[in-house]
Every structure is written in C-alpha cells, then in structure tokens.
Amino acid sequence: MVCQKDALVQKICEFYEKISSFENLKPSKDVNTLFTQLVLTCMSPNPIDVTKLCKRIQEIRSKLIRLCGEAEGLLESHYSTILGSFDDNPLDHLSIFPYFNNYLKLSLLEFNILSQHTEKVPIKIAFVGSGPLPLTSIVLASYHLTTTSFHNYDIDPSANLLATRLVSSDPDLSKRMFFHTSNIMDVTSALKEYEVVFLAALVGMDKEEKVRVIEHLAKYMNPGGILMLRSAHGSRAFLYPVVDPCDLRGFEVLSVFHPTDEVINSVVIARKLSSGLLVGQSFDQGINGAAVMLPCKCAEIQAFINPLNQMNMIEELAAQEDHVV
C-alpha cells in the first residue's frame, strides 16, 4: 500500500500543511507561489494510484482538493473583477489571467474530442459550475462553436454577476451566453434542451457528491446527449476529484483522455444511454459503423495529438473497473 513513505506524497503533505496555515487563500505572492509549486509537483510523471493511499493521506487529499477549489474560485473572482473594470470589451484582455493559455489548450482539446463523437454542431450547450470567470465557455464560443448558445449554471449569484459583466459588452457573446443561478440538482426538464453538458471539475468535491450529480444528469438529460467531464489522473488527483468511468451509471463512456503536459485535467466524454442499452456497458463504432458493445473492462490505448501543441494523450476506450497505473 502506498502511504506517506512515498517521497512525492510526503512532499504534497508538506504543501498541504503550509497551505492550510494561511488565514485566507486570496491571491497574494505567498499564496500564488505555494500553489504554483504544488501544481508543478503534481504535474511530475508519477503512476500513483490515489485509491490505494492510506486513510490519513486520503483525508489530506480530500482537504487539499477543497483548498485548491477555494483558492481557484478566489483567483477567478479576483481576475474577473479586474477584467470587468476595463472600459472597452473585457474579453480583449483575457490574457492577463495567468492560466489563460491552459484554457486555450484544454478547450481545443475538448472541442476536438467532442467533434470525434458528434456529427452536428450543437445548438445549445450547458456548462455546470461556470464560476466568475467562465473561460471554457468563452473560448469555445469565441473560437470553436461560433453559432452555439452557452447556458452557464452556477450556484453563486456573485459569480454569475461577475461573469455576466465580462460578456455584456461583446456584441456576439452577449447574445449567445446566458447565466443561471441554480443548484444543478434543482434543474430537471431544462436539461433535456442541451445536446452537450459540460461538468466542471470542482462540481462535486468528493466521490459521493460527484456521483449524485452524475446520477441527476443521467435522469434528466435526453438519451443520446453528450456529457463532458473533467477528471484527474496519477499525482494530479491531489488537485482535482477523479471520475472513474464506472461511476457514470446511465451513460456509455466513449473515451478518457489523460494529458501529459501543463493541462492538468483529464477529459471524459460519455453519451446518455437510451432505455434499450444496459447500464455498465459502452460502445465504440465498428469498422462498418455498426454499434459494437464493449464490456466494462475492455480498454484500448492510443495516442491523441492536439494540433495546438502536439500534446501526447492517452485514450482509454470504454469503462474500466480496474485501473492499471
């Protein structure tokens, strides 16, 4: 069993102790430096399986993910406030956000993955957990899905107020981006309107919360609708929750992509099952385009190349009950 004897785990625990000692996690030189060092540490290639960590480290990981989520929210609010203060179009200044390039890469990656599994450009997309700086929606709407409407859901009214201010002066996005202050668990029939639903990494901060949200989406999304989720793999799972493909009951898992560069999040794409398919099974397109049922443990690994920066990816087809890490 992997526990605190592992050097990487020990180093991450030291980061946790320092981060948890801060009175608040608002952006500052010390906070920014420490989180940057933590992210760089977690980006190092390490085949650690966080599910095999001892209980004490599991608890530290859960607390660290919540601290990262809190810091991320404060960072986004800080920069969204700055961007909203510009007299001209705030979207012209997005590059001041320190991780903007990461969002460009992640959004292109997600667009490419989505394009592999959809035939038509979606008319309406929902993004759940959009936050005060909805960069994924903005980048996708601006560069990749230029006719699609984006409905952004966040439980925090102040986050939606900041986000609305960013797009209100843009003649195009102000007509295609909408913000709803709602707990997604209270959204039911409206979910049937969206061909694609994106679920932010920090919606559902632990396994139980995440599974409840996924089950809710499975209940109310239209059959055939696409669900895009963000997960984490290896040591990056100290920063974000992990979505196991077999957590996606009610969906057929199409692919899982694990970045190996500065993009932290893994990307999972799944399709809402129709009533005729069995939960726990997945499909891939056969040679002649026929639906081929794949058992849960079937996995195929191949390279996925992102044309923006030639990032190497791992694609795992179908759901997996047992991870090999």
Automatic annotation (TrEMBL):
Signal peptide: none annotated. GO terms for biological process: nicotianamine biosynthetic process. It catalyses: 3 S-adenosyl-L-methionine = nicotianamine + 3 S-methyl-5'-thioadenosine + 3 H(+). The keyword S-adenosyl-L-methionine applies. Belongs to the nicotianamine synthase (NAS)-like family. PANTHER family: NICOTIANAMINE SYNTHASE 3. Synthesizes nicotianamine, a polyamine which serves as a sensor for the physiological iron status within the plant, and/or might be involved in the transport of iron. This is Nicotianamine synthase. It comes from Cinchona calisaya. The lineage of its organism: Eukaryota, Viridiplantae, Streptophyta, Embryophyta, Tracheophyta.
